[in-house]
Amino acid sequence: MLVVLLALVFAAIELLPGDAATATSERGEGAAGIAARRRLLGLDRPVWERFWDWITALPTGDLGTSARGERVGDLLAAPLPNTVLLGSTAFVLTVLGALALGVWAAARPRGLVDRAVDLTSTAAFALPEFVVAVGLMLVLSLWTGWLPAATVTGADGTPATWTMLVMPVLALTVPQTGWNTRIVRGALADQAATPHVEAARLDGLTTRQVLLRHALPGAWPAIATGVATSTGMLLGGTVVVETLFNHPGIGTVLAGAVADRDTPVIAAVVACSAALITVVLLLADLVRARTLGARP
């Protein structure tokens, strides 16, 4: 699947208007200079040849060379920690927030809290990351001045202050918390109808004990699947959020690579993202297998 995905990336970029030689040419550069650059980048070769050379070098860790002459591995190494920090923080907050809200709503089925959480989570998931980001900028930056609207990097290439991470993290967290809250609530509702949970309730256990000791363990497979799905959504949202907030991460590099028609950079980002999503999905499958396998 990864090989097919990467082949589609090469083909899609080939169909875009222009190419890397034209996009990265100097102002006023003539047709001869652009043609020479095209030969230097190998763009005069068929796309399938370029893809084969790139994919066969991938297992060795060689991600190719960008259209501007930089090694793609070195190009991605600097912003990668910033994206990891942003994405992992949003991921952890998403899981914690979804679990807290889902359990809170499940403790009061069909009550006011349950209806409020259901409505709020649906609205949050319906909002794209860029809408949340613009709203946060408007309220927390332009109107109140509490947080900086854009990220300024320090000498080490990281955000100058931790406050510059708040709005990007929230812009990623809010939609995915809404999605996962609904999954947690639904999974707990399904478990509430199972015989062992009903038996625990009839034995006189408190609502908290029933939820945490009996319902939540059985709901882990569905929750793990939802969280794993959020990984891909978080990575996709990172591109938009990093661009809007000028966050120095992989998303900003990817946006520039698309503008430059820089196929090796785009393919490298897709390959790394797909590998990460595959690992997370594998972990979710292991959680599901372990949970279901332990039950009679």
TrEMBL record:
SUPFAM superfamilies: MetI-like. The chain crosses the membrane at residues 84-107, 119-140, 160-179, 218-245, 265-287. Residues 80-287 form the ABC transmembrane type-1 domain. It is found in: Cell membrane. Keywords: Cell membrane, Membrane, Signal, Transmembrane, Transmembrane helix, Transport. The keyword Transport applies. It is a multi-pass membrane protein. Residues 1-20 form the signal peptide. Its main location: membrane. It holds the Pfam family BPD_transp_1. InterPro entries: MetI-like (IPR000515), MetI-like_sf (IPR035906). Belongs to the binding-protein-dependent transport system permease family. PANTHER family: DIPEPTIDE TRANSPORT SYSTEM PERMEASE PROTEIN DPPB-RELATED, PEPTIDE ABC TRANSPORTER PERMEASE PROTEIN. This is ABC transporter permease.
